[in-house]
Structure formats: structure tokens, C-alpha cells
Model the fold of this input.
Amino acid sequence: MEKADLEMILNRVINEDPDTPSRVIALSAEDLDRSLDELEVDSLAKAEMIAILDDQYEVDISDAEAAKFATPRDILDFVTTRAEQGAR
Done:
């Protein structure tokens, strides 16, 4: 998983209408370590993101694992590691 992939997913889940987004997340190096709350990713968006990650990257993410996702870097590291392990 690349940073651009996560940006696309985050932008998809935070905007009700993807054709006219109300805001756009572009992850700078500093943003990778900002909390999802600081990036204004709410709990519903987080849940949608987990479902997309599960489907798109074929990784099972438990509620306990998802609760540990505090920053975009946490998500990137988790998905990348799981995908490399071929864990499902």
C-alpha cells in the first residue's frame, strides 16, 4: 500500500459526494504522523476505511487492531505488513 492509495481511500470516506468533495486530504510527511482525529476523520469514516482496506487489500482487521490506528502511518504499516505476509 502506498501513501497515495491511503489518500484516495481517506478522501473517499470523508466526502459524501466524491464528485464535489468538501475537503481533500493530501498526506505530507508530517501528516503521516498526525492523528486521524486531527485530520478530521470521524468514527464512521474510520469504519468505512476499515471495510475498504479489508476488501481492497484482502486483510482481516479486527476491532482491536483497528482501534490501534491512530495515524495514517499506523494504517500504512499495518496493511503493508499484512499484505506482505499474505495474512487473511
Q: What stands out?
A: The chain is about 50% helix and 0% strand.
